[in-house]
Amino acid sequence: MRAYVSAIRYFNPGIDEDEAQRIVAAIARESLAAHVDPRLIVAIVATESAFDRTARSSAGARGLGQLMPSTASDDHVNDVEDIDQNIHGTVLTIKGNLDHYARYDTQRQYVYAIAAYNAGSGAVDEYHGVPPYDETVHYVWKVITLWRRLWGMSAT
Questions:
Q1: Which residue, of 40, 75, 130, 145, has the fewest CB within 10 Å?
Q2: Per the residue annotation, which of 48, 81, 126, 135 is the catalytic one?
Q3: 48 is catalytic
Q4: Where are the domains of the chain?
Q5: Is the pTM of this model over 0.70?
């Protein structure tokens, strides 16, 4: 857990230790419940918001996992700036994507699920893979690169 707190503080040097620990605890709890690799969630949140729970995108996405309002309401997230609620919605969304692409081999399942987190499953389904959008191609590369780096970190 200590390594993940350090990773969070690397991406967001202004975050205090207590908030970083709360984020790690939420990621651990929600990932365990959904059977999703917590390192994947750390990589997604780092890429989406750099662990800034007040982050807002020009498209309207908000919070740690940059949830869109429709996604947040579907996942019963009432306060997107709430650490526990946002991480819950983030994990449910990626879990839903992983389930949606479970018919593929593991590598494609994860690549498509990550792409769908960024571009939506409709776009991934339409293109039968990662949509040829520069943003999405870069997003998938960035998340997977960070995820691989996190595999080398000790969770203690």
A1: 145
A2: 48
A3: yes
A4: 2-151
A5: yes
- Separation of alpha carbons 52 and 66, rounded Å: 10
Residue 139 CA to its chain's centroid (Å): 11
Residues 6 or more apart in contact with residue 76 via CB below 8 angstroms: 89
Q: 76: which 2 tokens? A: 């019963």
In angstroms, rounded to a whole number, what is the distance separating the alpha carbons of residues 33 and 2?
21
Predicted confidence (pLDDT) per residue in 31-68, tens digit = 999 999 999 999 999 999 999 999 999 998 999 999 98
Residue 15 — φ and ψ, nearest 5°? Answer: -75, 140
Sign of the alpha-carbon dihedral angle for 87, 13, 62, 47: negative
> What number of other Cβ atoms are within 10 A of residue 122's Cβ?
10
